[in-house]
Amino acid sequence: MPSPDGASDESKDMTQVYFNGQWVAPDAAKVSVFDRGFLFGDGVYEVIPAFGRRLFGAAAHLDRLTRSLHEIGIEDPLSRADWLAVLARLVADCPTDDVSIYIQVSRGAPAKRDHAYPNPPVPPTVLAAANPLAALSPSVLKEGARAITVPDVRWGRCDIKSVNLLPNIMARQQAVAAGAMEAILVREGMALEGAASNLFAVIDDELLTAPLGPHILGGVTRNALIDLVRRDRLIPLLETPIPIDRLFDAREVFVTSSTRDLLPITRINDHVIGTGVPGAVWQRLSAAFAAHKAGASV
Ligand SMILES: Cc1ncc(COP(=O)(O)O)c(C=O)c1O
Q1: I need a labelling partner for 40 at 20 to 30 A (CA). Which of 18, 68, 117, 296 fits?
Q2: Whose CA is nearest to atom 1 of ligand 1?
Q3: What's the whole-model pTM score?
Q4: From the alpha carbon of 258, which atom of ligand 1 is closest?
Q5: CA-only gyration radius of the chain, Å
Q6: Going by CA atoms, what residue is nearest to atom 4 of ligand 1?
């Protein structure tokens, strides 16, 4: 349960975080060295955005959190109403109107390190914290971003939003080192998704994206965009993995995520995508998504 307002209001000038049922200053939130999140990466997370102080897609993010927890055998520590109360307070207290909320739940800190789950279970470690969310720069939206391709060396349960992100962060770091904004992960010749985003390509007048399954994360932005595309018949859509050579020849490519919406990709490795600037489909879908965002909440 979130504690009542002001329960531990020792640091009024710092935005507090929700930590194991308390509201505390960020530097007062301390995790045990035996926490299984720290020792094993034994936990899951979510990133939930708010725009203009309105949560966007919170229900879908909390559904995914519940699912990730269920898949790794941790009981959801908060009810839906309590999660929403925590999110609402974080959004209200954040100094900026656009907010990215980070939630992490790990399997807690038993006395002894052991690979097997503690039996009986110990209380999970629960964190929720807000960060200001910066919009994409106008130049990226005008010119598009660069991406690189990287072999997908992740495990076989990428549908779980696990805090085990070593392959993802190594791939993203490779992208940053190459002056790119995203790494596109390629498994057996198929471009599946980004290091922290889902992948879409316009090929032969169809919009392609990888199907849900163990090899990708079911992105909330991906799923909302697909619903919108199908509902308003914006473009024929195929959920199918994208062969890497077809990706390089695509008319348009973009990636989706909660913090970057639809990010146009105009260069991949040495290939210029389409005309080299964000295309008409991206423009139409971005506008439709922005309108959806303005109208939708929670
Ligand atoms: C591997 C991966 N795929 C896709 C996404 C996009 O998911 P969402 O749209 O829910 O932010 C993310 C987000 O962090 C991710 O890490």
Answers
A1: 18
A2: 196
A3: 0.94
A4: 11
A5: 20
A6: 197
Up-side HSE of residue 198: CA atoms within 13 Å toward CB? 30
Average pLDDT rounded to a whole number, residues 247-258: 98
| Backbone phi, psi, residue 147, to 5° | -135, 160
How many whole angstroms from 194 Cα to the centroid of ligand 1? Answer: 8
CA dihedral 62, 64, 67, 68 (to 10 degrees): -110
* 293 pLDDT tier (thresholds 50, 70, 90): very high
Does the Cβ of 193 fall within 6 Å of ligand 1? yes
pLDDT beyond 50 at 127: yes
Give 78-126 pLDDT, tens digit per residue.
999 999 999 999 999 999 999 999 999 999 999 999 999 999 999 999 9
Reduced to 3 states, what is the DSSP secondary structure of residue 272?
Answer: strand
Per-residue DSSP letter, 260: T
Share of the chain above pLDDT 70, in %: 94
Give residue 135 CA to ligand 1 midpoint distance, Å.
17
Torsion 156-162-166-167 (CA) sign: positive
Separation of first and last alpha carbons in the chain: 20
Domains of the chain: 17-132 (3.30.470.10), 138-295 (3.20.10.10)
Ligand 1 pocket check for 221: Cβ under 6 Å: yes
Q: How many residues does the chain have?
A: 298
> How confident is the model over 155-173, as a mean pLDDT?
98
* Strand 197-203, strand 252-257: pairing: antiparallel
What is the three-class DSSP state of 101?
strand
Ligand 1 contact via 222 beta carbon (within 6 Å):
yes
Instruction: Write the CB contacts of 10 (distance below 8 Å, at least 6 apart in sequence).
Output: 24, 25, 28
Is the per-residue pLDDT at 297 higher than 90? no
